[in-house]
Amino acid sequence: MSYDIRDITLAERGRQRIAWAARHMPVLNQIKDEFAREQPFQGRRIAASLHITTETAALLSALHAGGAEVALCASNPLSTQDDVCAALAESGIAVYACYSEDLTTYQQHIEQTLALDPHLVMDDGADLIVEVHNRSQGSSVVAGIEETTSGVTRARALAEQKLLRFPVIAVNDTPTKRFFDNRYGTGQNTIDGILRATNIFLAGATFVVAGYGWCGRGIALRARGMGARVIVCEINATRALEAVMEGFQVLSMTEAAPLGDIFITATGMSGVISEQHLRQMKDGAILGNSGHFDIEVDVAALRKLATSTTEIRDHLSEFRLSNGRTLYLLAEGRLVGQVAAEASPAAVMDLSFADQALSTRYLLQPDLQLPPAVYDVPPDIDERVAQLKLQALGIKLDTLNESQLAYQHAWQLGTVAAS
Question: What is the value of pTM for the model shown?
Answer without folding.
Answer: 0.90
